[in-house]
Amino acid sequence: MIEQKAALLAVYAVLLLAACILPFALQLRNYKYPSAWTIDRVYGVALALGGLALLAARPWPGLTGPLVLSIAFAAPLVLSGAGYAIGGLLALPLVAAATWWDPSLRLDATRAGIFMVVGILAGALPRLLPRTEGAPPLPSLLAIFLLGVAAVSLTGFMGSPQGFGTVWHHWSVYVGSSQALLGGAIPFQDYPVQYGMGPTLLVAALCGQECWTGTYIAAAATNLLYLLAMAGCVVLLVRRLPMGLALVALAAMGCAILMWTGYPPDFKGPIATPSVDGLRFFPLATLLFFIVAAEERGFRLDAAGHALWLLGLVWSPEAAFYATVVWWPYLALRRAQTIGATSVTEVAIEVLRGAGLAIAATAAAFAALAALFWIAYHQWPSIAGFTTYVRNPPGILPANPTGPIWLGLAAAAVVAVAQLRADARGIRVGLACLMGLLGAGSYYLGRSHDNNVLNLLPFVVLALTAAVAIGVKDVASGFAQVALASLVAFLATFGFESWDVAARSGRAWNIGPSRFINDIRLATPESSALLDESLANSPSKHAPAADAAAAQDWLRARGEGPPLWVSPSLLLPYGTPGPVWTAMNDVGAYALLPHDEVEGFIRNGAQHLNRPGWILVDRSQPTPWPALFLAAYSVTEQRDFGGYTAYRLTPK
Questions:
Q1: Helices H, strands E: what count in the chain?
Q2: Is the pTM of this model over 0.70?
């Protein structure tokens, strides 16, 4: 339950409120600007204290560890001044925590060489290409688009055991939700929708004979939109920066989206886990791009901004929150600046006016969506069903106080520092980028795994880029530059086991998902063996995949729909869209929810759908799932298949 994170939620609320209040406080006419030197030194002292604390709390790095080797990244900044070099050094303890999977990581000679060359070159590039003309827009975006196409097209890693299991598990959530929708189930009543109605409707619209290809297309398309929107923000922000620094920022953004979100301990690719990439964040990215473009190009088209905000509202509860905390504070600040609100009373009125408009617009939009839901299903959406995953984030962990979260917080702080001396436009841009980072950062509040922070690195890169573009002094600038360079160089710390296995099996250059979709049918002994290999390191026992394949073949021969597959693999069986007997069809999506809530959804589906179906249970270990279904269904037939038993269930 999210209540377990009360302290973390309180800290987050304070940060969010402070970030909102800061630009309005800067409007006050009696505000006395601290000197740029003072701001910079205070930020540097905070970084130094935090870095020393992290060094003391973590294992001491070896000479070939990333932290020690990356000291060289700050060397090129010495030529710009001691403050820049010091700021660069202060970034290193924060970035080093990104290798959470091995805090004592050591690099071999080859990887250390790549790491050093890339990092030093990235650090030196602003001096090697000093002309203040930014990155060439069209060539830059074309290049990053082509890299994105390659990243979402190459699917060879799916032929490795770990890649195969990862993709099957993570795609199952989208396929299962879309199949339930197409099969007649009512969202939020018969089943909770983990990632929102936007992705579910998109995948459902792309379903043909099966929904797996549709999931791939949806993930690939939204990943590319996410990449282009965020890269577009960078290109616009760096227009007045040295070309070398602009290219480093653009490279860091490309790496953040295409590489860091692909699970660095065993890199697979951005397509493997759609919920950490475009399918989660592209509505926010497009809104940020619109705001940055409007500010950099000097136009106002609020109707388009409202449309993008509504896209976030429709997409998912998370996207609604992200878009709301960016769009409405930005509008309120822009109005306060336009009308010249400078007294406490005037500023307070504008803040309250903006908050009131945000609340009213959000309430009206949700009321309209609820009305559309009623038209479609002749009942109102369940608030409890809509907020199921907000209240019950899967796999809750305590926040790691020595993890990479401090890099995200330092990036947020450097944008705030930049706002303190910025002009009106710079303050607005800074607010949008800061709220984008903090809004997206709510994703970390649920599970709070260190890898969640790595999935947020695109917004960290945007914040760092915005700070440098708005203007910061030497320590803060050095911090941002070395942090950006490090995010490129640290790719040398990644593991690539899944790709190595795929290369050895001749699958590395596979394009598209067709081979993977054939494998999840479990139609051949090789496919069953691949699934068994993917579960080989699981701490739980499991029955042979061939037994599950035999059961599913028998059910297909009888003309039955796909069963609910209850197994430690937590996978959705391959099936074609059609009428469903239960919407709780994917154990992996619902296994970590409270059992009483799961039982409620099962009961609702039994009453509404009123269809019989099959549940396929791995008998190798106890599971609560049969008992949850037997509260609403009766067993009318059963059959054993090796280590599995199939039960035919009929609603009571």
A1: 29, 4
A2: yes
